[in-house]
Design goal:
The complex is a heterodimer. Chain A is α/β, with parallel strands linked by helices. Helices cover about 40% and strands about 10% of the residues of chain A. In chain B, β6 and β7 form a beta hairpin. The chains are: A alpha/beta, B alpha+beta. The interface between A and B is medium-sized, with 20 and 19 residues.
Chain lengths: ~375, ~130
């Protein structure tokens, strides 16, 4: 028998090691000023490092069993159960999975809606994230944009009139539970009331609760947004409020809807309705670890701290003569669009005449003070 | 020959700015048309390098619409887009998407994609901005 040599353990050439060192230094430098995007940087997952030694894969339905024992399905199911409780999902009548992020969750919700109502029209507001238009195009779902109010919330008068005109077509409502730019929440209670007014029973509401889906369960007076208020599916990001080294999220849907889809795609020989094939087994582990170490009380503290920081930011900016604001229960602080040098340094995403910071726990008071100083100085320089 | 439409503020010098952006990338403007309405301006361009022009204008911060899309102008009132969709439906056309691009001074500019844009343009002549 001929001898086959084992594969040598690969090692990194010194010049490439230097590149990794440089990358780490760059990331460390950028982290302090990463205030414009909703990604909590304040976490510690060192205890999970040993699991990087395994090739693990959560392919398929987390509730469906798997031929690959190297998975974390058990942990994924626990994560989903926790989110189901937080979103008031109907007991034993929900289904879900851990996604690669909010967009996949939205894609799943719109996919379920599209399968249930192939002739439906999707309505979404002007303030909806651009990825939704992409998903709708990909899925060949007919769609009409609804106006937004000045504050970023859906214009219910426009929605009402639109539904009145198209009352014979099943509506698929894409509700923003915290818009990207201002954190505005489309009120699902009001949407349901309009549907009831026109006696439209064939309707579907998907809630994009990327960031706010982990805020609203922990505030005293949340806007109507979850399954109890009439949502049919909900997408929540894991890397936003909780924080994670990998983008991730969860999507949950009413089980009756998912079962109908599973039946309709039975012809392909698989009842797995997840969008992806291979799925990360690390992301569920991160989420599980985070939820278990924090507990509900820890999550509540993150939310309270973040809202406190938002109030702090508004006061710090006001002290320097800069007007800023936030929506109820939002940690998105909105202010006039700054000059380019501030945008670059603080990694801000502007839209039209506004920009924002998102006061997750890593955006500490000292960072807010430095930011407010920079912003005030830049605005002062702009004045004639 | 492909055309693209750029939305600009209705201010002097906009065409010159766009020409500068395109010239910097070696793109030639072969034909152009300028239309203004209230606070908005629309510059329609025919260029020799279509995709490069789209990229250059996007990078320069301009909102650009391709000729695969119809642009319409409507009064900014509840249900205005839905009413247009209904007109298309009554004409036997299938609406794919309709997006608001800009709302200024009680006027909405929206883009739409339909199963047959040529027929849709005929149906919507009263609100059509460009094809």
């Amino acid at each position: 028998m001929s001898h086959v040599a084992a594969v040598k353990r690969p090692s990194l050439p010194p010049e490439d090691r230097k590149r990794l060192d440089a990358l780490r230094a760059r990331l460390d430098g950028a982290r302090r000023h990463f205030v414009g995007y909703p990604c909590n940087q304040d976490f510690d997952y060192q205890e999970l490092t040993p699991f990087l030694d395994y090739s693990i894969n959560n392919v398929g339905d987390p509730f469906g069993g798997s031929n690959i024992p190297l998975n974390t399905h058990e942990f994924e199911r626990e994560v989903l159960a926790e989110f189901a409780e937080l979103t008031h999902a109907p007991q034993d009548a929900w289904w879900g999975y851990v996604t690669a992020g909010g967009t996949e969750g939205n894609m799943y919700g719109l996919y379920v809606a599209r399968e249930l109502f192939p002739e439906g029209i999707c309505y979404f507001s002007e303030d909806t994230h651009y990825s939704v238009a992409k998903v709708l195009r990909l899925q060949h779902t007919r769609n009409i944009m609804i106006k937004s109010q000045e504050n970023g919330e859906m214009d219910y008068a426009d929605l009402r009139e639109t539904l009145r005109i198209h009352r014979d077509v099943p509506p698929i409502i894409f509700a923003n539970i915290g818009t990207t730019m201002t954190g505005a929440v489309d009120n699902i209670g009001r949407v349901r009331a309009i549907l009831d007014e026109f006696a439209i029973s064939n309707a579907y509401i998907h809630a994009d609760a990327a960031l706010s889906g982990m805020i609203l369960p922990f505030v005293a007076d949340p806007q109507p947004w979850d399954f109890a208020d009439g949502a049919d599916s909900i997408s929540i990001s894991g890397h936003k409020l909780l924080g994670s080294p990998l983008p991730c999220g969860v999507v949950l849907a009413r089980k009756s809807h998912v079962d109908r889809i599973a039946r309709s795609i039975e012809y392909i020989g698989a009842l797995d309705t997840t969008i992806a094939g291979s799925r990360s087994a690390m992301s569920p582990l991160f989420l599980w670890y985070r939820l278990r170490t924090l507990g509900r009380e820890g999550c509540r503290q993150i939310v309270e701290r973040s809202i406190g920081l938002a109030e702090y930011a508004i006061a710090a900016l006001a002290k320097r003569g800069i007007e800023s604001w936030r929506h109820k229960n939002s940690i998105t602080v909105v202010f006039p669009k700054p000059p380019p040098e501030v945008m670059r340094k603080w990694i801000l995403a502007p839209r039209k005449k506004i920009a924002h910071i998102i006061t997750l726990p890593h955006v500490r008071e000292d960072i807010i003070e430095e930011f407010a100083d920079d912003l005030a100085a830049a605005f002062a320089k702009e004045k004639p | 020959m492909k055309q693209l439409t750029v939305l600009v503020p209705n201010q002097p010098g906009q065409l010159a700015k766009i020409a500068e952006v395109l010239a910097a990338q070696g793109i030639n403007i072969e034909d152009f048309d300028v239309e203004s309405n209230g606070a908005d301006g629309l510059i329609s361009l025919t260029v020799d390098k279509y995709d490069e022009a789209m990229r250059a204008l996007r990078d320069a911060g301009y909102r650009t619409v391709t000729q695969d899309t119809l642009l319409i102008r409507l009064e900014d009132r509840p249900g205005a887009l839905a009413a247009v969709a209904m007109r298309l439906k009554e004409a036997g056309l299938d609406l794919r998407s309709m997006h608001i691009i800009r709302r200024v001074e009680n006027v909405s500019i929206a883009s739409l994609v339909c199963s047959d844009n040529v027929k849709a343009a005929e149906v919507l002549t009263d609100v059509l901005i460009s094809t």
